[in-house]
Predict the 3D structure of the following.
Amino acid sequence: MYERNVTRIENLVRKQNAWRSATINLIASENVLSNRAREVMGSDFVHRYAEGHPGERYYQGTEIIDEIEARLKKRMKSLFRCRQVDVRPISGTLSNDAIFSQYINPGNVVMVNSTPGGGHISHHRAGSVGKYTSNIINFPLTPDGYHIDVERTLELAGVFAPKVMILGKSLFLFPEPVKELSSFCKERGIILLYDAAHVLGLIAGKTFQDPLEEGAFIMTGSTHKTFFGSQRGIVLSNAGDKEWRKIDKGAFPGSSSNHHLDTLVSLAISTYEMMEFGQEYARQTIANAKYLGQKLHDLGFKVQAAELGFTESHQLAVDVADFGGGDEVARHLTDNNIILNMNLLPFEPLSKVTSPAGIRLGVLEMTRVGMKEGEMEVIASFFKKCLVDGKYVGEEVTEFRKPFQKVQYSFDHLESDGESGTEPDN
C-alpha cells in the first residue's frame, strides 16, 4: 500500500543529490564529507547503543566502537593540543547546552554576542542560555560592528559580575578577544566559553586563533562546518580532572544518551583527514573568502568590513539593501542555483530578523570541492550578472560547477586496503 510513498522518498533524495551538486553552495554552516567518510555511514553502528565512555559502557557488545571512539578522542586532543575532550554531543548546540547546564543557574548574569552582532541563537533568551537564566547582557561592539569593545565589556562586567562569558558567533568574520578577557575572567571566577562552531576547522588548521591557548576555559564546536566532518558536536578544555568530571556529566547524561555511533565513525575518518590536510584547507578557505570579498567589492557590492580586509575566516557579510534586502536576494540567488542565507548585520534591530539588509556567504564547501581564487572571481561575476544586470545565470552556474564534483583535502584518491588486522596507532 505504501510502497509508492517509499519510492517517492527515494526519488526526492536522488533529486536533492543531483540538484545540490549542480549549485554553488555558499551556506556558511555547511560542508561536504569525503567519500571515505560517507562510505562508513549506514554500517551496523547505525543500529547500536554505547552509553558512557569507552571501557565503561552500560551496554555489552561495544568493544569495536570503544576502540574507534578512543582513537578519535586521542586524535582530537592532539589536533587541538588540549587535555580533555568529549566527542559524545550530537550537535554544537547540545555541546553548548552540556556546559550551560553545569555553569548557569537561575539569576546568573551571562554576557553574549547579540544576534545583530553575530551571536548564535543557542546563546540567547530564546535558545539554550534562556533555559537557565534571563539575565543576558550583550557585549558592546566597536564602531565597525564586527569586534567586541573590550574596554566597555570590562566596565560592564565589573558592574554586573557575569557568571559566564560566551565568545564565538554565527556571523564570524574575525577572531574574538580571548587574550584580552581571559585574565579578567580568571581573577573573578568567570567561565570564559568559546563557541567555535563555525571556525573549528580553521582553529585545527592553525590559521585563525587558538582559544584554549589564549585562555578560554572551555571550547565547544560543531564538527561539520569548517571542520569537514559529520554533523556532531564537541567539547574541549584544559580543565583539571575534578572540574572535567562536572563537564562530563553535562554531556552524559545531561544532554545525550546514546550518541549516534554511525556519525561518530564518520567523524573519526574526517579527523584523520583534518590532521593530514587541515592546514592547507584552512589557508585556501580563508584566501578564497578574502578574494571573493575583494572581487565583489570591486564590482560595487557593499561587502562589510572592507577597511579591515573583509574577513579573516571562511565568511563574508554583504549589505544588499539596494537589491531588496537579504531575504529577497537569497531567494533570487537560489532561483539562479546560488545558495546562501539572509543575515542581520550589526546594529540592525531585531525586528528586521526576517527581512534583514544583509546576506552571509561562506566558501568552505566550494573550497573543499577544489575551487580557488580564479573560481571566486567567476562567482563574483555571477552576482553582478544576476543582481545588477538582471540576467538569469542558473544554467551558467550548473555548467561552471560540473568540473568541481570530487571532494579534495581527503583520502578519496587512495583506496582502502581492507586490512582486517590492527593498524598502526598513528
About this structure: Residues 38-271 form a domain with the Aspartate Aminotransferase; domain 2 fold (CATH 3.40.640.10).
